[in-house]
Amino acid sequence: MRTRLISIRVGSLLSGLLLALATTALVAAPQASADTGVAAVAEALKEGPVHVAPGAEGQLSTAQADALAKKIKDAGKPVFVAVLPATAEFPADKVLSAVRAETGITGLYAIRLGDGFNAGADRAVMPANAVRNLSEAVKTGTPMDANTQLNNFVDQALPQVKGGAPASWGTTGADAGVPVGGLVALGAVAVVGGGGAYALVRRNRRKKEEARREAIARLGVVVDEDITAFGEELERLDFHPGEPGADDAMRTDYEQGLDSYDKAKQIMASVRYPEEVKGATQALEDGRFALATLDARRQGGPLPERRSPCFFDPRHGPSTEDGSWAPAGGAVRTVPVCTADAVRLRDGLDPAVRTVDTEHGPRPYYDAGPAYGPWAGGYFGGGILPGLLVGTMLGSMMSSPAYAADYGGGFEGGDVSGADFNPSDFGGGDFGGGGFDGGGGF
């Protein structure tokens, strides 16, 4: 194991020399037999992308592990691979999430446990569905040896993983065969420059924190307006569960509307990351459809079809048809529209577009920057939204690889999340039971 010189205060050249010698001994020494369990795996993965635990050396040779680690390091992606023996200290139903929690670094984690395989990733790094698909791809068919399976997985995963490799993977002098004297010099540089590096890390974190707070503040204004508009819609309907003609279906619709209203308010009261706003706008969209259904029942008309909300302003309610529209300087595309906006488009008039405040004044939400992506995503869903927004500022932002990392959560791939790790943001593997089994599958 390596030690982190940057965190140690060295008072003199002699202490620096002693520290370098100690570091060399630790690097050169084989892993002690006591270094087992999840904690040891996590410590190893903090220092490099591939770890083969004692008892699993027959699965992946040192040369194979080194080659796989080099591939991941060269790509600069936060991909962690562990090869573990199928023993009681690595419970199949918990080991994957336990390693992630203990490591404390956002990334894509793949574990070969005995002959089984599993993988999981933080949401900012790779969607859970993508992780599951990649995992199934390397578990289907003829059972593979560890080297083939892990390389296949890594080769497919690297182009899709977002974020960068953690700083703790930085190459040390010991890796390149640097003599002790070189380690002493490097230690001295680390001591002198450590304060500046730490200050830079803190400054970058402050900037990210400021950006997160600013994004939440912008989103809070817009969602509060949506919640207020939804409350006014509830009042306009003036429905009473005990009114003449009310039936159970109407009461169910009304309860759905009330529940959605409360859920949106609760989410916004506790939101910590911009991506969480999607839950509030999704709740409002569910509530609007429930109210539209309730209104149709009371009027005795046909029940509405479940459609996306009006593209131009979700407060208009569920769309009733599709219309042709093009943003300024963009190509024509089909978007879901409400009845009123459909009439405007047919008459050659501008639709009633939702505008939001920006530093340049009010702008349509789709030309106001990436902060409004989570707001729009809750209404329209991840699949349909990019196509609707092609040619707009928000659409351009959402198509960039950095978008999900910047606004999908509090940390990017490779960041140290520490105690702020949220297990619900880590997905892809099946942690509920069974876990790994012989033959490489679940």
Which of globular, elongated, flat, extended, rod-shaped describes the shape? elongated
Helix share of residues? 40-55%
SS-derived structural category: alpha/beta
Number of helices: 13
Strand order of the largest sheet: 1-2-3-4-9
Number of strands: 9
Provide the low-confidence segments as ranges.
1-34, 172-191, 397-411, 418-425, 429-442
**Overall residue-averaged pLDDT value:** 77
SSE order: HHEHEHEEHHHHHEEHEEHHHE
How much is the radius of gyration in Å?
Answer: 27 Å
- The proportion of strand residues reads 5-15%
Q: Report the span from N to C terminus.
A: 32 Å
Main beta-sheet annotation: 5 strands, mixed
Which secondary structure elements does this structure contain, and how are they paired or packed?
Elements: H1 13-28, H2 37-47, E1 50-52, H3 62-75, E2 79-84, H4 95-103, E3 108-113, E4 116-122, H5 128-139, H6 146-157, H7 180-237, H8 248-270, H9 277-299, E5 321-325, E6 333-337, H10 339-346, E7 355-356, E8 363-364, H11 373-388, H12 393-398, H13 402-407, E9 426-427
Parallel strand pairs: 1-2, 2-3
Antiparallel strand pairs: 3-4, 4-9, 5-6, 7-8
